[in-house]
Design goal:
Elements lengths: L1 H26 L6 E5 L6 H13 L7 E5 L6 H8 L7 E6 H10 L7 H4 E17 L7 H10 L5 E4 L5 H13 L4 E4 L3 H9 L5 E5 H9 L3 E6 L14 H4 L7 E9 L4 H15 L2 H9 L3 E6 L1 H20 L6
Parallel strand pairs: 1-2, 1-3, 5-6, 5-7
Antiparallel strand pairs: 3-9, 4-7, 4-8, 4-9, 4-10
């Protein structure tokens, strides 16, 4: 009888263990869809990178990864929404230099604090900017353009996609470091800026290299320099700004996933581990490279180091260039 009772007890313990294991697997993270908030409309750089990553992550996270475009006030509405989301691993932000670095220098009362309110999951890709000139501008190089601007302050003009846009901040910093004055012509988005640049009504425009590429390859616009730390494979003969000797300027607009601060460590570890696999997959690398990007695959503290470096570099530079917070 005692032996029978011991056997029954052992069976109950085994069943309890099996049930606990089943319950744990059912509750394991993630057991529902993860949403990725994109603070820009569909079709742009934010949206493209977010969807490439989400599509690949969804192959591992079977509950799904859903991209949600939440636009308004540039990138402020969507980024603030992500900052205030429950830190449970089920809401991520598509972050970039524009919303997690430049906004900190552009807005006096920013509704979120980049470093305090977010945890980096991984930086997936970086895009350089290309300084474009109208094709009949009579300067063969950025150095020649700067020499003319120094001799004729305010005579040349530069376009941007709006006050405070990445195109505006980068160009203003370049002219400040070069010690020259060009007239800023802000537009409501990049498309009207291109219209006037192609029409010869404005002289130069800094835009993401991936967007600038077809205009350069068609010969309708000329590339004077790129903003990244190295030349681009798609424009091997175009020097970096630093190479021109005009200014010690370098900026690459990185894109990656971020989680709200206080997201639990196990969820962060799972997300970072899967993100590293996704970012290193050949198909993702190929998609980014075809779009003119430089794959990064920086996770956790590696991503934080790049992020902090850009904050420490660009906030003082923006102030020195006279870009006043709104």
């Amino acid at each position: 009888m005692a032996m029978h009772r011991r056997d029954c007890l052992s069976s109950l313990v085994a069943l309890a263990g099996a049930w606990h294991g089943l319950s744990f697997s059912q509750d394991a993270y993630p057991n529902r869809a993860i949403r990725v908030i994109v603070p820009q409309p569909p079709g742009g750089g934010f949206d493209f990178v977010a969807r490439v990553l989400a599509d690949k992550l969804a192959q591992t996270f079977k509950a799904g990864v859903v991209v949600e475009n939440r636009t308004g006030s540039g990138t402020l509405v969507g980024t603030d929404l992500a900052a205030k989301a429950a830190p449970d691993g089920y809401t991520l932000l598509m972050g970039s230099v524009s919303n997690l670095v430049l906004n900190a220098g552009l807005f006096k009362n920013l509704s979120y604090d980049p470093l305090r309110d977010f945890e980096p999951i991984g930086l997936a890709v970086g895009y350089s900017y290309t300084l474009l000139a109208r094709k009949d501008l009579p300067f063969a190089s950025l150095a020649e353009l700067v020499a003319h601007a120094r001799a004729h302050p305010g005579a040349l003009s530069y376009a941007s996609a709006g006050n405070g846009s990445g195109q505006h901040v980068l160009a203003a910093a370049l002219w400040h470091l070069a010690g020259v004055q060009l007239t800023h012509v802000p537009y409501r988005g990049a498309q009207p800026a291109y219209t006037d640049l192609l029409g010869g009504r404005v002289d130069v425009f800094f835009d993401l290299s991936s967007t600038a590429r077809p205009h350069v390859e068609s010969g309708n616009l000329r590339a004077l320099a790129v903003s990244g730390g190295q030349r681009l494979a798609m424009h091997p003969n175009v020097p970096t700004v630093r190479e021109t000797g005009v200014a010690p300027l370098e900026l690459e607009s990185w894109f990656g996933y971020f989680a709200p601060a206080k997201t639990p460590a196990p969820e962060l570890a799972r997300l970072r581990g899967e993100m590293r696999k996704v970012m290193q997959s050949p198909e993702v690398i190929e998609r980014f490279e075809k779009a003119g990007g430089r794959p990064l695959s920086l996770v956790g503290d590696e991503a934080r180091a790049v992020w902090r470096r850009d904050l420490e570099r660009w906030i003082p530079l923006m102030k020195a260039a006279g870009l006043q917070p709104e």
